[in-house]
Every structure is written in C-alpha cells, then in structure tokens.
Amino acid sequence: MPDITLPKIDVVIVGGGWTGLTVAYELAHAGQRCVVLERGGHRHDATSFAGPEEHDELKYAIRHEHMIDVKQNTLTFRNGRDQRALPMRRLGSFLPGEGLGGAGIHWNGQIWRPLPSDLQMRSHYEDRYGAQFIPDDLNVQDWGVTYDELEPHLDFFERICGTAGYAGNLNGEQRAGGNVHEGPRRNEYPNPPMKQPIGPTLFGEAAARMGLNPFPMPSANVTAAYENPYGAQLHPCTYCGFCERFGCGYFAKADPIICVYDRIKEHENFEIRFRSTVLRIDKAADGQTATGVTYINAEGREVFQPADVVCMNAYGLWNVHLMLLSGLGTPYDPATGSGTVGRNYAYQTLAGVNVFFDEEIVTNPFMGAGALGTVIDDYNGDNFDHADLGFLGGAYVAATQYHGRPISYQPVPEGTPSWGAEWKRAVRENYLHHVGIGVHGSSMATPENFLDLDPTWTDAFGRPLLRMTFNFPENDRRMTDWVMQRAVEVARNMDNVRSVSSSNRAASGNDYSIVPYQTTHNTGGAVIGTDPATSVVNRYGQMWDHHNVFVFGACLFPQNLGYNPTGPLMGLAYWTLEHLKNEYLNNARPLMDA
Amino acid sequence: MLYSRRSVLAGLGAIGTAALTPPRHAFARIDDRPFFFFTDDEARFLALICDTLIPEDEFPSASQAGVVDYIDLQMAGPYGRGARLYMQPPFAEGTASQGYQLPLVPAQLIRQGLADLADRDDGALRRDAAARKAALTQLSAGDPAALQGHGSTFFDELWKLTNEGFFADPIHGGNADYAGWNMVGFPGAHAYYQSFVDKFNVPYPKPPMGINHKPGGDGAMPRPLRQREG
After folding, report:
1. Any catalytic annotation for residue A521?
2. Which domain does A50 fall in, by range?
3. Which residues from chain B sit within 8 angstroms of residue A63, using beta carbons?
4. What are the boundaries of each domain within chain B?
5. Which of A123, A289, B206, B210 has the fewest CB atoms found within 10 Å of its own CB?
C-alpha cells in the first residue's frame, strides 16, 4: 500500500524532457489536468547554464554533471546471450539525462527527418529489391505511419526549435544546396543555415566536385532572433563550442525548458513534481487499462497518483524498464521469439575519418556548435542502389565542428604513440589543423539484440536493473565499412590535406563496447507498428494491451535510422498527440483493432 | 611533520634534463598547503610518473602544470571517493567491452597502483627514467601480469587523470598558467565567436581565459578552495 493516495487527475506524465513537457503543453491546452513526474530536479538555462561557469569541460563533459547518476539507476550489459551481463558502473557509450529538460538539455541540436522509405523499410526494400533481399536474421519492420502523415508534425517541431537549414525538397521541388534526398517539406526552415567554418567548407567543396550533394546540417542552434509557435524567444548561436553535454545559457540551442516548459509552467492545468521517481505503472483489474502510477516523492514517501491517461515519456531505455517492472505488455523472449517488450533494441553504427591539414589551414576547432557541419546524405537510407552491396541501410557523412575542448579533442595522425613526448608534440601540432568526418549509420534490429530485466543487480530502489544484450549485426558492419570508404574518398579529395585516417566502431571483430562514448541514440524495445505480435504500441503510440497508456520517444523506432532521433521522435509525439486529443479523450478505447 | 608542496618537490627537477631550465615547479598555486590525499612520498613518485606521460619540452611537463595538485584534489574529492560509480556487489570479471568492474573507487585504485609501481625492482622506477618509461609502456599495452591483472585499468585511470589535469580549466588545480591551453591554442571558457567562425585560416588572437579569469591572472582556483584544510 502506498503512503499517500492522491486525488485522480486526467493525465500523468512520466518524465520532464522534450516529449513529456510537450505532451503536458498540448494536453493542458486541451483542457486536461496534467501532472509531470520528473525524477531529477529543477534547472533553468538562465540560472543553471550561464557561461563562463557552464563552460567547464571537466565538470560537465567528463564528469557528466547533467546526466543520470548510475548510483541511482544503471543497467547491465553483455554482447550476447552466452555471456553474463555486468553492471554499467560508469557512464560511457551513451549519456541519458536527468532533471528538467532531460537529455534535451545536453543534446547537440542536430535535427533530422526520416526518409519516406525509412518509415516503410520492409515493404520498400521488398518492392525495390525483391522479397528475398532482407535476411531472416534482421527484424526489419515498417513503422505503420508514413512520411506524409508525419510531415506536418516534423515541420511543427522544426518551428518549435527555430531550426536553421536550407530545404532540399520544397513541396516536391528539389533544390541544390539542401538535402535533395529528403522527403518533400511544406515549409522552408524557419531560420537560415549556420555559418560554415573552413573544415566543413573544404569537405563540401570536395564532395560537390565528386558529384555529391553537400548541404549545411539542419540545426537547432538558432541563427537569428526568433519566436517559436509557443511564444518562446530564441537568440542567435555564438558558436561557443560548449553544446553537446552542456546546457545553453545563451538561449541559442532549442531545449525543452525554454521552448516548452517556460510557456506552460504557469498554466492552471499544469503541474510538475521534481525528485519524483516512478516505481511502476499500476494496472486496472479490467486487464485493459492502467489506473495511474506509483512513485517515490521528494520526501521518500510512496505515492499513488491515479489518472485517466498515463503517458510514458522517460528516456527510451527507461520506458522499457518501467514496462518490464510493471508487467505491461509481454516481455520478449529471444529463445522463442515471442513477446514484444524489449524486442528490437537497436543503436547507431558509427565510423569516423580524421583529416589533417597542412599549416595553411587553421580550423579554430573551439569555434563550434552542436549541429555545425556540412553533410552528404547520398549514402543514407536507400538513397543509393543496394542491389549488389549485401546490406540494408546507410549513413550520413558529415564534416562537423562541434567543439575543440582540449581534454576530449586531441586528434593525432595514425601511428602516434598514445602518451609521452611524441604524443605531446602531435597534439600541439594538429589541434588547429584537423577536421573530423562522422559516418552516422543506421542500426538494424535482430532477434539477439534485446532488453530484459537483470537477475542479479538492482537500482537504488531495489528494483532489478534493465539488462541490455547487444552487438553490431553483420549487416551494419558491412554497411558502415562501405560508407566509411566513401567518406575516405571525399576526404582524399579535399584541398590542403596532409593525411587521412579512419576507424569503424563496428569493424569486423570489434565487439560493441559500453566504455567509449559513441552516441546517446538508444532505440527500440517498445516499438510502433500495426501488428501486436511485433509491436508494443499501435501506429498511434497507444499500447495494444492497455489502451490508456501512450508511449513516446525513440523506444518506438522499429530499427534505427541513419539520423539523429530527436526530430523523428518528436514528429511521432505530435502525431500521437493529434490522435490522443481528437480521437481518444472523448471516447477512450483502442484506436486500432488488435 | 607536514611539508609544503614546493618543498616536497624540491630537487625533483635535478633528476632529468629539467635541471637545465629555470625551476618551474608544480604546486605553485597551493604551495603553502600539505597535500589533501597523497603522502609526500606518493606525491613525489606520482610527479615522476606523470612527467613520463607528459614530459617537459618547449611546454611544461605534467607536474610543472600542476597535474599532481589536480590529481590530489580529485582523489580527495567526490570523484576519488566513487561519486557516479555504481559500486553494488557482486563484482565479477568481465570482458573489455563491459567496462570497469573492480571493487575499488578511483582513490584506492590510484593508491594501490602507485604503490605497486614504486615497489617494483627495489624501487627502480623511483630512480631511473628509462625504467619508468619501460614500465608504463608495458602497462599501457595491457601487461596481464601487472597489478594482479589490473595494470591496464590502473594505467587508463592514471593517464586519464594526468591528461585532465593538463587540460582542464585551472579552477580544478591543474593547467597552471594555462600550460595545456597555451600549448594547443585553446582560448578557454569566455567563448563568443559569432563574428569569427567563418574567418578562414585566421588564428584567434586572444590569450586563454578560464572560468575564474581576472585581468592579468591565471584563472587559478578561488581563494576559499585553496585555503581549505586537508
């Protein structure tokens, strides 16, 4: 029995990040009494993220002050079912957030859309390459929602962020200088693209000479004074180089606090409770709904909050954790292939190319921004012919300049010792003469990569930790190796290049490691779809098993895109909200037949 | 009896070629204090090891840049005591891809590792620069015999801390006189480049400024932190 049972509310929202605050904004304005439960504390750009104090590489980028504390909650990890999973005792490969705004505070602001073909991945590949093209050991699925359906919602989120970019496909008209491969957009980006520094510029010039299609990366680092549709004021980016892993005290990187929270926090239908960790979602006796959530409040007391609608807006991994702890849905069993919760966990497949320039090129790498760079999308998704390549998916290739913070940014040519006099000289000689090219690739779901509960280790509340079982699929190893070779070709065509080196995290023989930072793009585990045998939620984000539970975030992705997830997952959030508001609230029921 | 940091380090430079250069010792900024975590003996040995990792050239060595100060503060503080480190047992051996699994917080790992190195071969590493370089080369290559099999874990931790102390904002006790930032050309925490970012191939003219920078200063840690008793 809980210590406290509160009066019933309309909507309880688990998590105060991008999706949770947006759900609260939209539903509060639709007349719903909303309560957000956020396990971290309050913080605000003006008071918590101001420079120069925020510009402390050690405190924020290395010691992870804005991220989750693994002492409270972590997970266990193994590469395969034949191993014993062990706790992630320190953050490394990915950096989920905690506190108001969640990971939306410390993101880079790289804001993308899925390709139309990405959202119909299985049917698209089968149509183009034949039914046998997709191997049996890949759980490739359609999303159940199309690009045309998502487009207005992707567009709206780009306006919430004041996104800077140049449209490559405006209402069907392809435009050089933008991403000519993207789906049609109804509007130009709300702000002009970022200024490009020398390294990304040289990359773009080389790519264009090779007949490729370079364009400025779409960016939520805003380029002009801007007011978003909720009335938030954003300011132009200063290119300060403290973006990813930091909050932005300049009000220049769109984040959930300034873009959403500030515009809803005084509303009569809105309440947020900090230091409130949701322990479980409580199921109703009818077997079809949830009654609310039970959480530990800031005083350490157990509270039951009844609600008509439960929205799951934690980080994707923790949404899956909460489902498993609450007995929502059926856990996935890799031995039989049955069950769906925890199924289709995927990541992101990354490779990189280091380009070292001669003395003439001075890059000033510390003049950076999270989404500053020049990109080619010619090798992403199905933008190129896969018929003879033996893999699905692809990657964007981007020359970026997102920071020059000196503990982390120490590019040295291949063969340099990792410490000592030679290392020291190489760090000094190359710091101002380097640009990095990232290969940011898709990640296919497989039957052997999944999430479940750990049998041994527990979190600070005594609950079993989430257990992650993951290694790079062979498909993705081949994909990223092939795209990396294309990136190397562009690098070798750049002017003033002294040397080029490359490395592939997913190279054959490299196990996925939880240690070095790669990306906070953990996806899947509670995926969207049209078949309850292979998805946890229907195409509206509504749980098949409990129709008043709606799920948000990258846990919905059936397999991961070659793009950063925030744009796509926010498009899905607005899509779900449209149906929740217009079709569910006045007639609570399953929105699709199982 | 407690010695000041400067006196602990006195004579260290005479071991290597640094004796030929003007004495630019470590610990300058909190020189009048004893160490918070290390014994004087540990600090002297740590300085020798750190200076093998980042030796002096046209730019200061690790210890000259205050790295021993930095590591001492880190070990005495939350990081050294295991903040943000999940320490729930059981502890089991894992694969490299599963990450850190030792039942030691960083302060224990560093202390045990340094003691192990210092005692090797009748203290050869205390006396002989070539022996230090050879031992660290072996450790960083993953020598399984070292430190009960945990040599590379210790090395990775020590190298990470040394590197941090050379390049972190001076507010944390290292990077003395912006040694690391001057070396690479990083201008620091007061960052505003809107009108400069697309000036191609123009070196940024301003000298480094840390979080606590005052005109003409070195961005060192604020006075209250310097005066705290160990």
Report:
1. yes
2. 4-584
3. 79, 84
4. 5-227
5. B206
